[in-house]
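Table S5 (text form). Sequence records supplied for joint modeling of the two-component complex.
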Amino acid sequence: MALGFQPRESIRPDGSKKHAAVDLARRLPGLILSARHAAASVAAGLHGRRRAGMGENFWQFRPFISGEAAQNVDWRRSGRDDRLYVREREWEAAQVLWVWTDLSPSMNFRSHLAEDTKADRALVLALALADACVRGGERAGWLGLTPLFSSADVIERLALALVTQARRTDDAFPDLPPPAKVRPREKVALIGDFLVDSQEFDATLARLSAQGVSGCALMVFDPVEETFPFAGQTEFFDESGAKLRAGRAEDFAAVYGQKLQNHRAALADSARARGFAFALHATDRPATEALLRLRNGLEAR
Amino acid sequence: MSWVFASPWILLALAGLPALYVLLRVTPPPPRQVAFPPLRLILDERRDDATPARTPWWLLLLRMALAALIVLAMAGPSLVPSGASAGRGPLLLLIDNFWTAAPDWAARQAAATKLLDDAARENRPAAVLGLAEKPFVTLEDPGAALARLRALVPRPWLPARAQTLFAIEAFLREHGGEAAWLSDGQQDADGRAFAGKLSALTPGAAILTGDRPPRAITGARNISDALEIDVLRAPNGAPEGLVRAFDAHGAALGDAPFSFGTEDRAVARLTLPLQLRNDVARLALVGEASAGGVFLLDSGARRRRVGLIGGAKADQPLLSPLYYLRKALSPYADLREEKPGETDPIGRIIGEGADVLVLADMTLAPDAREKLKKFLDAGGTVVRFAGPRLASAPDDLLPVKLRRGGRTLGGALSWDKPKTLAPFDETSPFAGLAPPADANVNRQILAEPEPGLPQKTWARLADGTPLVTAEPRGAGTLVLFHIAAESSWSNLPLSGLFVDMLKKILARAGAVGPAAEAQAEGLLPVLKNLDGFGVLGPPSAEARALPKGDVTPDAEHPPGYYGSQEAPRALNTFADGAFKPLDISGLNLRPQSFAAPRAVDLRGPLLLAAVLLALADAFASFWIGGAWRRQAAPAALALLFILAPPPVQAQQGGIPSRVGPSNSDKWFAPALNTSLAYVVTGDAHADRISAQGLKSLSDTLSQRTSFNPGPPRAVDPARDELAFYPMIYWPVSADAPQPSAQAAQKIAAYMKQGGLMLFDTRDAGQQYGGESTPAQDWLKIFLQKLDPPPLAPAPKNHVIYRTFYLLDGLAGRSENGPTYIEALPPETEGEKAPARAGDGVSPLIIASTDLAAGWASDQWGEALYPGGSDAIRTHELALRGGVNIVMYTLTGNYKADQVHVPELLERLGQ
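The corresponding structure-token record, covering 1211 residues in total, follows.
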């Protein structure tokens, strides 16, 4: 994979438009595998409510208690015996996790210090998180894009939806989650580099918070975005085409470090104020680390 | 010092430098492009003043200098020392290619080549003329002139430069230009005259002389107990030297040192037994590769065995004819004399192998005459002297008929005065000798006038009467002196002429037997010629037959052997004379030495500087681009390491420290595992072959024998400990310097304590006749320091051919070649031992077949350096020989003792 900004269409999980199917076969398994692998390590800790309650799946038969509504009797089971039984269903935690990943061009970047682009890492994390939720008996969906899924092939479904969306929008994805319909007490996991104005970020979180959801925001960054290992005569450019010519790039290191710290502090403050957890993840670190952070952030609320 | 440009018009390109300056200033080096998503965070920090819009001034300077250097280099500059080059026009190179120039011929060629190179760089045509060649000069381009120069070889005769002057004059008149004369620095015949004419033709012509004035052997005398060799040097020549004597087959017979002291002539005395002295065919100055440094000896130089038989014995020695003959001949001949009271002195002396019989006045018995006639038929020379007896009773063993009585001149009863000698005829063997004015003859016997008498006459008196007559008889010659051998008839026996005449007769006397002087008369055909370097070779194409008499060597009569194969006559390069340095004072010539500074071509250094600047520019660009710290720095450091000279070995030349950990490691490994070793000769190619050869030999030993040697090791005898190695292989290279005395001591000690040195001269097939090859010479000098045991060619049943395989010889890359090993005790009579060995292991083996190259094989066992007609077989034989050598080294004479096992067993059984 080349360094720097990647081709625009590589944001999709499937790859180029022409060879969508082939690339999907090539690319998705990798993502899925790494997602499953990451999810397997946290599945046990995320969900522990194995008890009777409201739900759709059979849980257990229990003796009929007098005074109970007669309609609760499971006549098929009771017919085999002299006693009356009630069919109990498993209590389904009404927990819902919306995942969302920033797939804007600025995420589509990899430096020589990292192995993946930020987008790839974020996508893997989002899919893994969704998979982990479904395995934990909860439901997951892509914020603003898909309904909630609880089937085991949630990763494939989400990936398919993303590919479809990428084709529809010509690989243009927003920097921040668009307004979407969510219910109160649902959880949201936002993964992205959040290289946006902190006001916009705050506005988005405020909107989500107003809808009654809480969750976690994970800021994914490339190592060079933190260490700023540049020196000498350098011309910087970003995905929007903006350029900065530095006679001595090392002169900018301190300024940049300060700016980055301020930006992160602003984001963290905003997240805390809106009931969100805020975490950082560098792409040169293992993905499981980020997944744990996300889980912690989601469970704490 | 002055600057010269080969193509000065290229310097115009320097005018383009300002344009380059402008161009470089407006195009600064491009910055590094870096993608950086969070750019918007610092986008408002844009600082225009921090971006260099222009190239830094020092980089600009660097690049300008780079461009200027390249332009300068293209213009072909050279730094010419003042006075080296006169300048324009064709260059005429005059080269003394006589034998006097041969000793430093390579330096002359190099100097001439350099002059031609200079001419080529300046685009000047050139011409080359060897002054000993035909006077024919053409103007050529320097390349063709260089080819002509390479073809020049020194000629074995003395300079006669005058004949070339007209060609030089014609050339200079037609083309102009300047001349350079590579002179031998000697006056020779006409050096000053030639120099004068040359300075008149081209004032300021360069004259280049070397610093090795010639030396020559001017003569050799076979005196009673030694061969005296006259050596001549030019003034300021080497003060001492060595004359080496060779026989007809080229084997060295002995060396005779000489030292000039303050004189320019010296005499070297070669003390050898007479028989060996008579075998000497060639004398050569060691280290003087010129025809003048070689002296050829023919049969004339052989020391004759002369019988003196003198009839009556006089009471007073000064009246005895034999006294004068003995005095005259003893320095030049081996004398045999009649003993008192002997019955048949003639028969005895002929039987002792005399070549010349000198008979003083005596009457001959008939049986003695028969013996003398047989002696004459066999090629002997009989010299008879007159006297009262012969005058009274002439016999038939005389070249002319004699008148009875004889003739008295200037006596009391005679009107005539004593007669002096007439000058010798051209045809006479005495031609060239000058009769002294005071030699006169009082009495003589007269020849009967008859037809043919003038042809028989070798010397005559002033009035024409024959004094010495001679006649060929059979293969020999019968000579009669018409005077007595003592001073009563003539005072000739008292003069030096008498000695010279006898010497001429001795020189003319052939050997007794079929090898007699067959061509007494006429021209002598060419047999062999010396070339300018003093190497005897086939006749030169221009050589003509040699007339009799004294001939000065020239193009038509180059020095060498003439006449018949059996009794050749030697014509030597430098009969006599003296060297006189060439005097050019007062002439308009520029004297120079071969080693004088020449024009220095600056193209290479300039281009090198340009490359270095380009490298510096690349680094600077890296530095500006900011990549220095991350990738370029390690790369640049690596590059610096590659460019840097290898680290100097700390131990080199110093005293080896015996306690360092590296040293003990170095010594532990060979001590723990026996391995073969080879000596590092300094010749990388030979060392690689040694390593490869010993490696494959070690592998072969591991496969085929129970000996598992470690990897072969390279040793430096001066520094490394040798005690660990059973055998050390030393490929001898004649070019290598002789090892230091310290190394020789260590090797001698190694050989004494049981080690085996395996020298390999690698010259099998190059040994012709008895001449030793350069590698053998090198080894001979070296072995003198080693106290070697007596060596002999290894006999076929030597145990070294029996230790593992049964072999006939030690094959290497070539299959056959002599192998020398410590001489064995003589074989006991009647014993036919299948294997013989001395006590212990020979400390020294000298092979010649390039063993290591024969052993060397690649990883698949194929010969790396295939040799011989059947490479596979030769390789296998070489390896077998190597296995045998190592087994011999390790087991000694064990295999020879094994031979006796059956007998021992038999004895045990009894």
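Note: Chain B has five domains: 1-30+50-81+600-640, 91-212+580-598, 215-302+523-578, 311-508, 661-898.
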